[in-house]
Predict the structure.
Amino acid sequence: MIELRGVSKTVLSGGQPLTILHPLDLDVPDGQCLAIIGPSGSGKSTLLGLVAGLDSPSTGRITIAGHDITSLNEDALARLRGEKIGFVFQFFHLVPSLTAIENIQVPMEIAGRRDAAARAQALLDEVGLHDRGHHYPAQLSGGEQQRIAIARALANDPPLILADEPTGNLDSSNGRHILDLLLRVRRSRGVTLVVVTHDPSVAAVADARLVLRDGRPVAEETTAHGGLT
C-alpha cells in the first residue's frame, strides 16, 4: 500500500538548511496498522503529510497503492487523495456552518456521487450517531465530532486512512472509543491505517511501530504481516 524510498525533508530556517526528516525507507503492506510515535519535533506529522501528498519530499520516492505520488501534478494528486486516502485530524477540521451529515457528504459531492445523502446516513449509523446528523459541530462533543470526522474519512471508501493524533484532543474515555472505532473500521473494511500518536495505548495495538527521534527512526517493532525496512 505504501512504499517510501530515500524520502527526506529539508527546509530553510534562518537561511540555513534544517533537515526535519532524514532519508527513510518504509513499507506498509495492505491492511496493516502502523503507529508512528516519537517526541514533539521528531518528524511524525511531517512524514504523515508527505505520505498524504500534502507536502513534497526533498529527496526520494513515495508510492501509494501503486502510484508514484512524487511524479503527479496537483490535479492528479488531488484525485488520488480523493479516491485513495481518508484523513482524520486531531482537531477534527469539520466545517462549522455545515451539519454533521452535510460534513460527511462533502467528499462524496466533490466526487460526484449521486448516493451521497443515503451513504452519509449509513456512515452516521456506522459510527453510532444515527440521530445526530442534523446537529452542527458546535452542538457535538469532542468525541462525537471525531466520529463524524471518521465517517467523513470513509465517505469514498478509501483503502488508506491517515490519522494525525486522532485521540490527542480527547479525554481518555473518548480516546478509547475513537481508537476502538478506528480498529473496528480497519477490521471490517480491510483498510490500511497509519496513525501518528503520543498515546501508548494506540501504539500498543498497532501491527508495527515506527519510532522517530530528530527525524530518524530509532526503534522498530513488526509482526509477520510486514512493516519497516
Summary: Strands lie at 2-13, 16-28, 33-37, 59-64, 67-68, 85-89, 160-164, 192-196, 208-213, 216-221.
